[in-house]
Write a structure and sequence with these properties.
alpha/beta; Four Helix Bundle (Hemerythrin (Met), subunit A); Rossmann fold; 4 domains; 5-stranded parallel beta sheet; 20 helices; globular
Length: 560
């Protein structure tokens, strides 16, 4: 367990034990009230406290506390099924006995300055982020050099080496995200590859291998698979195919940035779950009040909801029903958290479309495994609906929705953001001159360049045809223009090949700022007007939207 995680867990443990003192006093007071008179509300409150302790105790490595709470909860539950006006002496003695056992355990934990937390294995988040380094083992060739140059223009760092000895050394010096090996699988090459694979350290053994080979048939592909090849491309190839392989192979190695919403009215327990999930790279938002759920879901993309069944103001069934009544959340995975599994309750959950039911106390590995599996399915389904199939960027509908959500978020936070529209210059000429296949390569190249050069929080979409839209959160229009200028320069330097012909392509763009334009519709109109101004001025330029530019653009539209 790393130092940061250990410190975070210790902080949570201290917070939990501190709250346990208040809980102990509350249990004592409730038991005293039951001794004076039978109050259904008092018994229900006591049972609810026991229910929460039963779930949280085991999670914080205190199984004896959890067991004691479960026993008292069961006693109270049985009595509440057939409530009476006055507790029998025997009934009160049973409550007294079980509550005293629970209180003793609480006091014991509080009295220890450092109670031993149950030892668990944790899935530790990788310390290093995914690098953009690609290593290529290849004999000197014009084709590979051109390929490397195109990859560098798009934003990758590329190193070419002619020997496996240098390949091993470079991989150890700086961990790459992908290794490419150009080979024809001759006997001598097979021997060298096998030696290279046998000498890989634990540090580099999981880096995916992509083989390039002129002979693209079943036998060479089988050979590549047997030599631990994760991918294969026939030669000649191009940067787009390599980049497609890059994203496919590296995404399999690294967890996506899923976003999980935890709805639980026990903040300490919710933080404990969040810590386990955040430690493997999952973004977590905690709500202790379910009333806030719809507002949050309308402003943020959530991949999965962890929902406590027993909440103060309502129960999990009611919250789940509300979510399932809304079309946008019909497919959103929901996992119930509870201290028991009742078959009838589970069947009701399944009827509502609940994806799973986790029983407290929850082991970190189980929580992470189930959340990752369900979030992955949600991610895939959402992307099928929201992504442009050719580029992997957001499609037109999702981009417009995200623009609307960013307006809502910025309206709440008071932060600026900007929105840009990009259009490839003279794209019809490219298609007519070099063919639609080359045109597709140009579009994909710009898409990948945007993905490489922009931040993870920026939202990139294919607006239509050769047009792209970008949302820059927390960014002024001057800052957004500066970033666009860098991408504009890089794209203009990329050398495209069509047979023996070489050519270059540029783009034009317009960019608008919130709150100068205060709605998604106005931002889109303003960015489009600024884009038109760039084209009217000769293309291959960037323009900031102003009210005057928008008026000019609107007049142009009316004159059409």
């Amino acid at each position: 367990m790393n130092k940061d995680l250990r410190q975070a867990l210790e902080k949570l443990r201290i917070e939990y034990v501190g709250k346990l003192s208040e809980t102990t006093q509350q249990i004592e007071e409730l038991c005293q009230r039951l001794n004076e008179s039978v109050e259904i509300e008092v018994m229900e409150t006591l049972m609810q406290i026991c229910h929460k302790l039963a779930g949280s105790g085991g999670t914080f490595g205190l199984p004896v506390l959890s067991d004691a709470a479960k026993k008292l909860e069961l006693v109270l539950s049985n009595m509440l099924e057939k409530p009476s006006e006055k507790l029998l002496e025997s009934q009160y003695q049973i409550i007294l006995k079980n509550s005293e056992m629970l209180l003793q355990e609480c006091r014991k934990i509080i009295s220890y300055s450092n109670p031993e937390i149950g030892k668990q294995e944790y899935l530790i988040k990788a310390e290093k982020e995914l690098s953009n380094l690609i290593l290529i083992k290849s004999d000197e060739s014009q084709h590979i050099n051109q390929l490397a140059t195109q990859l560098c223009h798009i934003g990758f760092e590329v190193s070419i080496t002619e020997t496996f000895m240098d390949l091993s050394r470079l991989a150890e010096e700086k961990l790459p995200s992908l290794i490419i090996i150009k080979t024809e699988f001759s006997d001598s090459e097979l021997s060298e590859i096998q030696d290279f694979l046998g000498q890989r350290s634990s540090k580099t053994e999981n880096i995916p291998l992509l083989y390039l080979c002129e002979r693209n048939n079943f036998i060479t592909r089988l050979t590549a698979v047997r030599l631990e090849g994760a991918g294969f491309l026939g030669l000649p190839t191009n940067s787009i195919k390599v980049i497609d392989q890059y994203y496919y192979l590296t995404q399999k190695q690294h967890a996506r940035n899923y976003h999980v919403l935890i709805i639980d009215d026990d903040p300490i327990l919710a933080k404990r779950y969040a810590l386990a999930l955040e430690n493997v790279g999952i973004q977590v938002t905690i709500l202790t009040n379910p009333n806030q759920a719809l507002n949050l879901l309308s402003e943020k993309t959530v991949d999965l909801v962890l929902l406590d069944f027993h909440l103060q103001e309502c129960n999990g069934f009611e919250v789940a029903k509300i979510l399932r009544q809304l079309d946008h959340y019909i497919s959103l995975p929901i996992i119930f958290l509870s201290t028991e599994i009742n078959l009838n309750r589970f069947m009701r959950s399944a009827h509502l479309g609940i994806d799973d039911f986790l029983t407290k106390p929850i082991v970190d590995e189980d929580l992470i495994s189930i959340v990752m599996r369900r979030a992955e399915r949600s991610y895939i389904l959402r992307n099928l609906i929201e992504q442009d199939s050719a580029t992997g960027l957001l499609n037109h509908s999702r981009l417009k929705l995200d623009l609307h959500l960013e307006v809502l978020r910025s309206d709440r936070t008071g932060m600026k953001f900007c929105y840009a529209l990009i259009d490839i210059d003279h794209f019809k000429v490219v298609n007519d001159t070099y063919g639609h296949f080359i045109g597709d390569i140009v579009i994909k190249t710009l898409a990948h360049l945007l993905q490489q050069r922009l931040r993870s929080i920026d939202r990139i979409g294919r607006y239509g045809g050769e047009e792209f839209g970008i949302i820059f959160p927390n960014t002024s229009v001057e800052e957004g223009l500066s970033v666009l200028a860098q991408i504009h320069k890089k794209f203009s330097e990329i050398e495209f090949m069509a047979g023996d012909s070489k050519f270059f392509v540029t783009f034009s763009a317009g960019i608008a700022e919130y709150p100068t334009f205060m709605t998604g519709e106005l931002l889109n109109l303003a960015a489009d007007a600024a884009l038109y101004e760039s084209k009217r001025g000769g293309r291959n330029r960037l323009t900031i939207a102003t009210p005057e530019v928008v008026v000019c653009g609107m007049q142009h539209e009316k004159s059409k």
